[in-house]
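Notebook, p. 212. Picked up where the previous page left off. The plan for this session was modest: take the two constructs that came back from the sequencing core last week, fold each one, and keep the raw output in the notebook itself so nobody has to go hunting through shared drives later. Recording the first one now, exactly as returned: residue sequence, then the structure token string.
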Amino acid sequence: MAELDTDLDHIIPSVLPPFWAKLVVGFVSLLCFARSYDGDFVFDDSEAIVNNKDLQSDTPLGDLWHHDFWGSRLSSNTSHKSYRPLTVLTFRVNYYLSGGFHPVGFHVVNILLHGGISILMLDVFSVLFGGLQYTSKGRRVHLAPRASLLAALLFAVHPVHTECVAGVVGRADLLCALFFLLSFLGYCQAFKETGNKEGTHSSTFWVLLSIFLGAVAMLCKEQGITVLGLNAVFDILVIGKLNILVAVRKVLHKDKSLENTGMFKNGGLLFRMALLTIGGTSMLYIRWKIMGTGPPAFTEVDNPASFADSVLVRAINYNYYYSLNAWLLLCPWWLCFDWSMGCIPLIKSVGDWRVIALAALWLCLIGLIFQALCSEDSCKRRVGFVVAERVLYLPSAGYCMLLTFGFGALSRHTKKKKPIAAVILGILLINALRCVIRSGEWRSEDRLFRSALSVCPLNAKVHYNIGKNLADQGNQTAAIKYYREAVRLNPKYVHAMNNLGNILKERNELQEAEELLSLAVQIQPDFAAAWMNLGIVQNSLKRFEEAEQSYRTAIKHRRKYPDCYYNLGRLYADLNRHVDALNAWRNATVLKPEHSLAWNNMIILLDNTGNLAQAEAVGREALQLIPNDHSLMFSLANVLGKSQKYKESEALFLKAIKANPNVASYHGNLAVLYHRWGHLDSAKKHYEISLQLDPVAVGTKENYSLLRRKLEQMQKKDV
């Protein structure tokens, strides 16, 4: 599209050499998002990274190929079916190099990836604007350096990219985009025009490499496979120079000359299409075999439009969502970390004024498609290869092309170039500033969630996340306010009900907690966590049979549920069903060997029932699995002391105190050990430390009084 570049001559007066152009684009892209480099793990980062065991070295690398993005097995009915093993592998490398969950390294990689993608966009835009032409020596000639530079700068500073760059889980989109572009450029590399000789020849190597890179893109994020379709369309429309308008006319008039069109006689094209088809089909088949036949489960709160009764209502809302995506590309000022749950009220009839937005969208799209593919000079136009992804990182490249094309067209129809140049500069500066501001909002969950209130005040998930963040900080009163608002905005928001019920349970407001949790399990009968929490509340209300049934229902819906087995064991212990309690706690430790509370309760129950030998065996087994748990050291030390294994008991007590020196009971029980052992001075010392830490401990005060009387009697005898 050399004509467009000429139109921009007066707007962008000088052309940077390719190296310096890439340097400028890379620097600008890094500058826009650098503020997020030391941010926290926020929003979905917790589940995908911090709580994902696939990142840790004790998880076999082979498991990554059988788990989803969040660390669950793909075969599980709770799996989201998002299969992105290569993205998870990069997280694992980050974890290894950082020596743990230190977010700086994760964020820096994301920022660098965006910089690299922005640089690659220069080459992609050069192809789409200027075509694939080579000198006789095989060197590529960039016909549109100004247009590609402007489009790449617009891409580099687009604020809609902030979520992908500043949110660590956005790396899936970044990696997918990276290999998507490499696949496209690799496919372009298969074609050359040399000298004055017309026609093209393809390199099978480059086509196969492009297919391989497409597979890599798909393993980073599912949408990566669409690059094969883009390559095919590019081959037919740009390389093959198919004029849609002419072809349609010939088909309508049954013109036999269509059969003689060079594109259809070109065996190379058919061969390339066959390779792309085989490659794409193979990828889809392998992906299907790995994922299984079951689709991911979504609820109404995720996408209300999908649950609308009317097909017309669903279609209208889907198209309205497209128009909103287009608006975010055009005016990325109102950005939100989540757009579900009431953020976009459902359109329920064609009389809603918002229907105008989707009508405008399709009028523009139809006009652009017709202009790009069906106009008389379509062989000269290369705009229109916009990837229709759900997320907006890659699609924004198409928007940047269209905006650049628009500026070129505007320049062609006006003599005043400076105002256009000022508008371009203004857009770049405003978008860059917005990127910096938005990157700051992604630095912490509190700022991120609160920034969404002004954009989507009706979004129940926004209020839920603010409430959850406040609860994690210990501010339960404020958390209750936001949880209640989330439930008010979305009366079927079971997760908000569950969390609110938990807080009310801790505040001993058991009646309301039970009502909320009961409603949650009515709305979502397979909500295992709500069933377990309902059981805890019922247990506190002394309704033991109902509590047991709730626990059993939770385990039915989530068979591997160690916390539920732990709570079930507590119920049985309250009912003096000791064998059942021990079995429940044993199940908890089998499912989660590091479940310290379950191990502790087993030791204490066996100790209290006089089974000291068994208690000792369980304690030693627990410490082998969790060697640094001071509570387990304390429990086992008590058992060993009762078994008169004083030396070993003393060592464990001292080790527990070293790990946590401010626990009064640790010093008090060690004092009791010394008291029994006859080391009275040591006993006196630790009784006094214990009473300093907890002056009202009745048992310790009584034991200390007994010790003092004994010491006084000994002093009198000595006198």
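Okay, moving on. Second construct, recorded in the same format:
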Amino acid sequence: MIKVILDLQDENTMQNYNFISESQNLHSETTQEHAITWKEKITSCRWLVGVVVCIQMSCSMTLRMNMSMVVVCMNPPNMTVTLVLNGTNITKRDEYLDNYVEWDSNTEGLLIAGYYIGLFITSMAFGALTDKVNVKAMMIGLTLVMVVTSLLTPVLTFVSPYLVLATRIILGISAGGLEPGATQILSNWAPLPERAQMMVLIETANSIGAILNFLLSGLICSIPVLGGWPFIYYIFGGVNLLAIVQWTLVIYDKPSMHPRITRKELDFIENHKEKKNLTLPIPWLKMMTSPAFWGCVLGFITSGVIFMIMAICLPLYIEQVLKFDATVNGAVSALVFVGRLAGAVVFGHLADFVYSKGRLSICQLRKLFQVTGLLGSVPIVIWIGFLRQNDRLLAVVLMILYWFIVSAMNSGFRVNPADIAPRFAGLINGISITLTAVLSAIAPLIVAAITPNGTAEEWQLVFYGVVGVSVIGSVVFVILVSGDEQEWAKDPTMVSDIAITVSDNDMKNGLYSESTPLLHDSKS
């Protein structure tokens, strides 16, 4: 073993060096002292909180996305009754049709977009409030508002579509605080060694909620009472009320507030958290003029527009072109999200595996998976555009495969905020969600304008639009994205590089080397 002696001439530099070494030793000691077994992990309070957050977000997704199936289920079927009167057959309209409402495609697109209009209004505002309010109480209140508006919607449907639009906007306004709130709670509870595992629960919840929404909505529509579709609101509203009860009993904003948490678990969480300087200003001008920032944001927007067209508007395509009934429509739409969930898991592990090999930089890795998701799915969506009713089975298989491949993007744009600006990752997410909500609100209106008759040829134009978004999004992301922490995002109070002066004798003996590796290896 060779002992290297450095001539540190600056007293402040020496103190910083000692601080880093002591911090690393302390981290090592606390990790060993608070070693957590697998049994302790799965029975811990933090993971119970994580599971309940996942359940709550899954349930809320059924209220947020249900309009996509409602507009399909509430369309009146061709129901007539043939009577024989004085030897003459008379066709009479079945009174059961009064339980249905028929809207044109523009109205349906507007109602689907209403949620995103509300989301745009509040997503950034709630994101800024989550570290200043009681998040547990905030999410209970927001969910109750969503439940009440959903329960009122069936009655208002027979009054005016604009009143339904108002309920969708109110629901979107309320939902604007759910994801920031869930993110804040998980951030408070997640120790660094488990942060990635816990934070992915939100994305998992969104996919699970979408699967439940489409699958159960299709089944609920077949209920032979009131046309079936109003029960989508009633059943999902009741499920969310049960989720609120569970939330009230289990969730606490911070570990220190939990009455049943053990001292060992509390110490483990607190000793595995990074220290943040919350008083530092946000460099708005530098951030807004940063190519890396816009590369990341435009990646979010590209994903959001594709999601709106290929997922939210999917039931309309399945009904109008593939001619599936409502029950099968829901099952097919749910299968698509199973493909999306499976793709997120597979490509997430693949990204970690590729990175562990050290052959690609972070920037190259992000570009690889973003382009794989966008361009790799282009041939499939073009193929789908040429399919007709007789190709229904193939269309379903291709849609599942499409979403499986597109999910590779989650290892691209979605984790990029933490690459370029760890301190402002939440802020970048909030800005991205806000801008995405604007275009997501416009997308259904464009789809409705392109498909007034719901023909296969009209939907083919929609799919060509998705191809254009995918290609342009890939090019922009590759040009602008970065994998390095940006200068404007760095904490100026933290020591990143420390100048070390090496004596002339050391240089003569061949001991001169870069300072940073020496500082991060206390055994050198």
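Notes on construct two before I forget. Strands lie at 80-85, 88-93.
Flagging for discussion at group meeting.
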